[in-house]
Amino acid sequence: MKIATWNVNSLAVRLPQLLDWLALHQPDVLCLQETKLTDDKFPHAQINIAGYQVQWFGQKTYNGVALISRLPALDVVRNIPGHDDAQARVIAGTVGGVRIVGAYIPNGQSVESEKFPYKLAWLSALRDWIAKEQAVHPRLALLGDYNIAPEDRDVHDPVAWAGQVLCTAEERAHFKALLAAGLYDSFRLFEQPPKQYSWWDYRMLAFRKNQGLRIDHILVSEALKARVTSCVIDKLTRKNERPSDHAPVIVELSD
DNA sequence: ATGGCCTTGGTACAAGGA
Q: What's the CA A97/C1' B16 distance, rounded, in angstroms?
């Protein structure tokens, strides 16, 4: 089973790239973030024609998530139950016996912004909910754009980024709390070369200089950890024409 | 080169992203 996550930064712009990507990589599950489409505009027919089921949850201009899968997604949930949120950031469903939680964690903008406490409160709600989900679904994957670089080695210039949003101690503590709750960062289950990132700013030739951050993650529960055979950041897709600023992340699970 | 983007809404350019 191949599961993946990709922040597409506008599905209105990136639909052709998405269809190409599905045909090339043939994932069993793909979680999308930043679709930026209201539900009436979601291109479900094209995704169905490509051989996939899809559940979606969006809004105008910002945010928006989708869960694409070969098999139908069961028990689909939109956003964090009990956490009042005007923004479309989570879609979850059970696919092939695996609980898939696709999340677009808030960016936070800057430590001084009112969006930063919103991010921290959101992460607290996520943590509480995931703990409950794990109790019900031992085989669980939490994948998406976390907007957190977990460690300095996930940052091209840790000195410049020290204390900045995406790299603060508070955000990293939330990431660590997910690990402490029994989730594993698939990427770190394997020996990895240095300077591996999943996002590069469109500006400053950041991609060409590999000035990026690793902020897109696939966390898996203990029961799934034993089945993870690889975790790859698909950097090639970031080189495409009209790319998203994020690269997809892909995990292979044995049967 | 001490810089260099992209998307949206709306139709000029400001705001947001990470």
A: 38
- Give A30-51 pLDDT, tens digit per residue: 999 999 999 999 999 999 999 9
pLDDT digits (tens, 9 = 90+) for A138-164: 999 999 999 999 999 999 999 999 999
Task: Note if A145 is an active site residue.
Answer: yes
Q: Which nucleotides of B are covered by protein (CB under 7 A)?
A: 3-9, 16-18
Distance from residue A204 (CA) to nucleotide B4 (C1'), in Å?
A: 5
Q: Would residue A184 show up in a list of annotated catalytic residues for this protein?
A: no
Catalytic, out of A145, A154, A216, A245: A145
- CA A156 to C1' B2, in angstroms, rounded, equals 19
pLDDT, residue A254, reads: 97
What is the tens place of the pLDDT at every residue in A64-101?
999 999 999 999 999 999 999 999 999 999 999 999 99
Beta strands A140-145; A98-104: pairing state: parallel
Contacts of A252 (CB under 8 A, 6+ apart): A1, A2, A228, A229, A230, A231
Token output for A255: 């049967």
Give CA–CA dist A53/A91, Å, rounded: 14
Q: Kindly list the distances between the CA atom of residue A153 and the CA atoms of A54, A101, A199, A209, in Å, as whole numbers in the listed order.
A: 35, 26, 14, 16
